[in-house]
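Researcher: Let's try something more involved. This one mixes different molecule types, so please make sure each is placed in the same coordinate frame as the others.
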Amino acid sequence: MAHPITDFYAVIPAGGIGSRLWPLSRADAPKFLHDLTGSGQTLLRDTWDRLAPLSGEDRIAVVTGRAHRAAVERELPDIADKNVILESEPRESAAAIGLAAAILVRREPDVIIGSFAADHVIHGTRTFEFAVQQAVDVARAGYICTIGIQPSEASVGFGYIKKGSELDVDGAPEAALVERFVEKPDFETAQTYFADRSYLWNAGMFIARADVLLAEIEANNPALHAGLIELAAAWDDRDARGPAVDRIWPTLEKIAIDYVVAEPAAEKGRLAVIPGHFDWDDVGDFASLAKLNSRGRGELAILGGNARVLADASSGIVVSQTSRVISVIGVQDIVVVDTEDALLVTTSAHAQRVKGVVDALKLTGRGDVL
Amino acid sequence: MAHPITDFYAVIPAGGIGSRLWPLSRADAPKFLHDLTGSGQTLLRDTWDRLAPLSGEDRIAVVTGRAHRAAVERELPDIADKNVILESEPRESAAAIGLAAAILVRREPDVIIGSFAADHVIHGTRTFEFAVQQAVDVARAGYICTIGIQPSEASVGFGYIKKGSELDVDGAPEAALVERFVEKPDFETAQTYFADRSYLWNAGMFIARADVLLAEIEANNPALHAGLIELAAAWDDRDARGPAVDRIWPTLEKIAIDYVVAEPAAEKGRLAVIPGHFDWDDVGDFASLAKLNSRGRGELAILGGNARVLADASSGIVVSQTSRVISVIGVQDIVVVDTEDALLVTTSAHAQRVKGVVDALKLTGRGDVL
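Model: All components are placed in one shared frame. Result:
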């Protein structure tokens, strides 16, 4: 495999806040700006470092909100100006990835783009690179390609991709068509999926020629496509960009790329999948974070550079963003998140309910800590 | 009952830190300087307010450490200078109460003193006053008298007093001799005590003529008595007091008044008891604090004037000393204590283990938060 891949451009949508990780993750410090693995750097930086060998550092575009521009440029000091694509407000993944495609295809008509979330955790560099390289070859053959994660357990936390018939693409021995997408299953169904190796986790990774991706958007949502094309036409003109963004961006439909691209393409036999054999997690909530940082069953995981934790007969996770001494005694599967202005105490089993707290804080006028 | 009682002097030993209430209670903010009931004032002030009608405000002495002088005078702005008895270092209850007795008897030979801890919680003013009035009458008759709390449940958290034969003392219809003291029992024993109404909780309240109390100390610990007498002789002489304290106080035995006065007096048939029918708690740990502030089974109690707590499906207690938002989700019998520099998360069942944390913090060089 030649590195970097010459016609490949990486795109990192860095949008979501990660409400279920409040009070760690919040509007001014979203999930992708945190170190959630104890690696010493943010998930965004981890993502950049993972993609740079594949695309080259000068070929990674980040799509993010205006509010996060400074943080993104601080994390990624080598990012080129032209590769920072700023949204005036969040409009979901179809608009974010579609805009990147529309901008890049004008600069480079044959470009293949690969979109990878800024806030996922991946371990296993070589298997990741092998999957991307295969996906690029499949994309070069005209397919839209996703990478589906080979499950390591019967998870009910992710959507699934059902692998269909194999594809015969040079350089992509594992390529197959996507038969269909499946929503998060119940545990029994997840167990049958896990036993049947043809079900993969949907990790939201998409690799395609930019023009193919845009054609798929056009076929399924012409208004969104038209807006993206018009916006892209003004993008590289300093005077025209601002007014175009202000006028067009707020009118674009808020919709996930799954519905505008992936699912319709799968129905038409135009969506391929490469199985990813690397460790992957979207760190969707604190239960996931606890597992990811677990030091073993019945142990207490600790996340935070300056954490001063004194634990006795406890398991779960403590996330410390302060210098306070934290003492945890006799609590199991606990989740303690200690930040300067907000504290969360819950258990892994209730991790999904954190989003409800965020909603309640908004409703009760305590949005200052969101 | 005549109020105030003319020959009565209240003594409040304000010493203990309350390690099992860390990080709320600590060296520079011991338990008696906290509002643990949501009354809006400290336990020390509650104690003062409870005693003032019985003794008069000018007849309440507080025995406390030099470090707490300013805080005590802030809480009790009406306290007379001569009623602030400062220890150069903590030397336990026999020395503290004995010193107060030795000082007061010189000023007023027939004085009856009543010693009441600064950090207990009592509800029921009239029954408390009735018990004290009876105890003073018993003391006037030459007995040392304690007030034992009529149990409201089979508690294993307190020591017990076995009531013996009734005493015939005018004005004290409930007076009896103390048969013996019993250490904290196991649950089965506590149940038999609770069923047998002659077992009372030892609340550490002692009422006696000062000279009788001192004679008991002299009989059982002549060295301690001699030191106290020498110290008291120098006390009201501004020039002599300081050197006497520095010389004598550190030599006095550290011992509880139970061993030097109460138990020996009980053996000799010189200790009486009045049953107290008021609500009493020594707030020994967070389980006790949670119960005291409980808003009902399965509810979360919240303590702290500026608490911003968002609770969902949780029970136990949150103590907030900060302005942080605290969210508690799906945890039962939880104890969360949030202070500026330390955070505790445990459960009621583990409340007794908090003292172990305090010891561990000392050992590991984190005494800054004690």
